[in-house]
Amino acid sequence: MGATNIHYKASKKGFKTAAEAFFALVEEETYTYGHDPYSGTIATCSLTSKVDKPKNSEEYDELLNRIDKRECVVYEDDEYFTFVGWAAC
């Protein structure tokens, strides 16, 4: 099976922590797409770490290259938790 890159944002207004936001996104995608382990959504990933926010598209691409299939990392700014990674599809 393959993988597709994912990019989700969650407002900090609705969540106290990145983990809380991650689990809410997983729950939402599971509700929408079911329990398919190859849905291509964040529901197929594990949150592995927090990283620094990429400064440009090159750093973003380098970040994706360091992440394995089914892994997701988070970075944040003042308004959002941003989750990126590779979802199984």
Structure description:
The chain has about 90 residues and is of the alpha+beta class. It has one domain. The protein is about 30% helix and about 35% strand. The protein has a four-stranded mixed sheet. Strand 2, helix 2 and strand 3 form a beta-alpha-beta unit. The N and C termini lie close together (about 5 Å). The mean pLDDT is about 95.
List keywords for this structure.
89 residues; alpha+beta; 2 helices; single chain; four-stranded mixed β-sheet
Mean pLDDT: 95
- The ordered H/E elements are EHEHEE
The biggest sheet amounts to: 4 strands, mixed
| Share of helix, binned | 25-40%
Arrangement of strands in the largest sheet: 1-4-3-2
N→C terminal distance:
6 Å
Topology:
Layout (H helix, E strand, L loop, with lengths): L2 E9 L6 H16 L12 E5 L6 H10 L4 E6 L3 E9 L1
Parallel strand pairs: 2-3
Antiparallel strand pairs: 1-4, 3-4
